[in-house]
Amino acid sequence: MEIRQHVSLRHLNTFGLESEARYFAELASEDDLRTLLVHPDYLSVPRFILGGGSNVLLTQNVNALVIHPNIKGIEVLEEDDSYIWLQVGGGEVWHELVMYCVRKGYAGIENLSLIPGTVGAAPMQNIGAYGVEVKDVIEKVYALSMKTGLRREFSNAECQFGYRESIFKKELKDQYIITGVVMKLHKKPEFHVGYGDIQKTLEEMNVTELSIRAVSDAVIHIRQSKLPDPAKIGNAGSFFKNPEIEQTQYDALKNVYPTLPGYPTVPGWIKVPAGWLIEQAGWKGFRDGAIGVHERQALVLVNYGGGKGEDIKALSEKIKQSVANQFGISLSTEVNFV
Ligand code: EPU
Q1: Number of neighbouring beta carbons within 10 Å of residue 189
Q2: Of 180, 185, 271, 273, which residue is 20 to 30 A from 295 by alpha carbon distance?
């Protein structure tokens, strides 16, 4: 097990931000991870887990032991006529897993095509897109306690999934490293194409018979047309969450802004797209030197190259303030600040 010092994290965060880890270890097995977690030399050093780096804003150097878990492997645990259970290492690249499932004909995650990041990070914030969330297919999450190195299995219910939320971001924040998941996928697909853009794109693609691949292709097409490719322009997808507001506030705003979109969630509450609010507040396409707000999706903050995390943080605060001033809505971030 190699522990390096003063390691650049620039290629390990999708914003492409420069930041240095005091200590850095990449570990490919649970045994190695456990050994490190209880290693006497590092017991008093703060730890920071960095997976695919697709949901993090590095605003400074990380004065900690940065652990990059990289456990690979896709294994069939069980199958019957209707379902297949896959055990997947947390270090697998999420989109590669989706492509594997599309090839094999396993349905359930095709709507989540092209989401950056690793499999281990997916349950952490319950990744979601186009009407599907990863909680819909997760049966189990395997994790190691950062304190003891002991392994624990979490059932779907124990993960307490919510909108971009899980127990790993709340009560158990910074306490566990996710090493793998078990997913239950469908051999007899149930398609989720209710999300407006998907239906429209499938029609434009002249798809007459739905298939796992067609849905995946449509999602890839939409994402590529709206969202910047992190390999070209640094970003972490949606920077903010879509806020939920009370029906009464929604109705009052709708009087002033008749085009305000809204999606009912629980009775009395409406989710509104943060991208719409930010665009109305005038930020879409805003650029200040190396950083800015994406020109096609206002929910995505970008680093064109050489930007600084602290500047992106300052920009996000200005955006929050102006949305609060104009709409009386407080945005919360989806991206985690370090
Ligand atoms: N909109 C605007 N201006 C913008 C962006 C969006 O007016 O600049 C409006 C759109 O016209 C549409 C609505 O907002 O009426 C929703 O837009 P979109 O379908 O692009 O989705 P979103 O709500 O902005 C969410 C997720 C995305 C996910 C898409 C598709 C969150 C925070 N974001 O974005 O997830 O891909 O739906 O399901 O929930 C991510 O989490 O990183 C992410 C990319």
Answers
A1: 16
A2: 271
